[in-house]
């Protein structure tokens, strides 16, 4: 029988840890996160809304900077103002936001100590060296799942489908433990590579790409891809198709998403504590 991971349950454990940490802080902390996002991106807007709901319950103040038509100079001015503000502990820039070049320039303008999702080149460099204060939230979320199911990476064959930012971050984090295969849109014999994976992680944003026909018997599947179609959220994995063949799978929605939000907010609290 396939175990369907409940991301909300794992997230609730992280929130419990956050509450215990903030309860020890005196005087009562005033923790603040600023989120800059393009309202035309449904996935990014949904992510910020999920952050907003959970931040409020934790007593974290969320400032939203919503762009209906993103402008580089305006966004840069906001980031510079937030960098200098004592009332902002953390800054999040959601992707996509303008083109890749401008996104990178904006990400690199974020003060490293406020860059809680490891967006800047400086913090990415520390992450690659294993010295980052805050790991990217999605990376921490994947490790939270593996901790929950007691998954030992050593000696395992891991296949990451998707070579964008998320795929690259996960490859960096997992390569020291497991034998790694990274697939992209140019990969030949994708089915063969997927079918050999003990752990399959998909982050393409292509709904239904992964089916029961092309996975290994007993594989663990982590679905990170999310796509909004007609107001409904879909993952890369065709869930009903892999049931009975996969041993463990994270669904979409309510899989890796809630855990990622929780990990991001934990990083926000850590940034506040580190700032002293």
From TrEMBL:
Similarity section: Belongs to the tetrahydrofolate dehydrogenase/cyclohydrolase family.
Pfam family, one: THF_DHG_CYH
Biological source species: Candidatus Iainarchaeum sp
Subunit structure of this chain's protein: Homodimer.
A GO CC term assigned to this protein in UniProt: cytosol
Residue span(s) of domain Tetrahydrofolate dehydrogenase/cyclohydrolase catalytic: 5-117
UniProt gene name: folD
Protein name (database record): Bifunctional protein FolD
One Gene Ontology molecular-function label: methenyltetrahydrofolate cyclohydrolase activity
